[in-house]
């Protein structure tokens, strides 16, 4: 029951692909910073299919991605959260792993 | 749906925060700062922020950003003072990046000090004992 915290771009860092290797059934992934950009890519959308995803709202907004990600956000497995939500999530999961 | 939602939320929890990113040019430090603010606003306690790798640049008291930009170094100091948070640098990470305390200056025969006195120099042992004491370690 781990929360995988990814804050780097999937194109410059292997954090996201590494975490997927260790993703357990009750786990979730928090995309923050440049990690959010991967949701624009069909290949990554496919790889993340069925995973529980959280998006840090301020980072999505600061990158101007709200409209572009609308289709992804309508999918039921993605939840947009703020920092208060991040704090709550970190306590709901038994561990937060920053990759 | 996250498991156990809400089960822990009514309790005050202890956090230790690890910052691996520089004061500017990296997203990590400002993100960690926002997390700290949100955790404190929810009534949680942060007993220590441990600065590791490039995170030690957050301790540089010579940091002088433009006056219309946030001064993250100063913001860490203020947050630590207001909420009684220990700011701890990894000493070896700091020394090899030229972040030196008064004691390091004397010991190494250097001419100046740039580590703010509110930051203490410690080893990874400080991180481990901090993790022992905390409910959660969050790294940025």
UniProtKB/TrEMBL annotation, chain A:
Gene3D superfamilies according to UniProt: DsrEFH-like
One Pfam family named in its UniProt record: DsrH
Superkingdom classification of source: Bacteria
InterPro entries for this protein: DsrEFH-like, Sulphur_relay_TusB/DsrH
Protein name: Sulfurtransferase complex subunit TusB
Phylogenetic classification of the source organism: Bacteria, Pseudomonadati, Pseudomonadota, Gammaproteobacteria, Alteromonadales
């Amino acid at each position: 029951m781990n929360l995988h915290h990814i804050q780097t771009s999937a194109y410059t860092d292997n954090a996201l692909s590494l975490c997927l290797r260790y993703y357990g059934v009750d786990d979730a992934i928090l995309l923050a910073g440049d990690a959010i950009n991967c949701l624009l890519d069909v290949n990554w959308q496919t790889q993340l299919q069925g995973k529980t995803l959280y998006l840090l709202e301020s980072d999505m907004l600061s990158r101007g991605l709200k409209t572009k990600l609308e289709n992804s956000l309508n999918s039921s497995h993605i939840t947009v959260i703020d920092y208060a939500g991040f704090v709550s999530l970190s306590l709901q999961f038994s561990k937060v792993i920053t990759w | 749906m996250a498991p156990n939602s809400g089960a822990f939320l009514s309790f005050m929890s202890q956090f230790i925060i690890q910052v691996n990113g520089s004061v500017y040019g990296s997203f990590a430090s400002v993100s960690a700062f926002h997390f700290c603010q949100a955790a404190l606003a929810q009534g949680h306690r942060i007993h220590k922020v441990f600065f590791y790798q490039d995170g030690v640049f957050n301790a540089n008291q010579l940091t002088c950003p433009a006056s219309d930009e946030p001064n993250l170094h100063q913001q860490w100091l203020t947050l630590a003072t207001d909420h009684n948070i220990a700011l701890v640098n990894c000493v070896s990470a700091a020394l090899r990046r030229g972040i030196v305390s008064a004691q390091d200056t004397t010991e190494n025969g250097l001419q100046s000090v740039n580590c703010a006195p509110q930051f203490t120099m410690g080893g990874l042992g400080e991180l481990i004992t901090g993790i022992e004491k905390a409910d959660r370690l969050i790294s940025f």
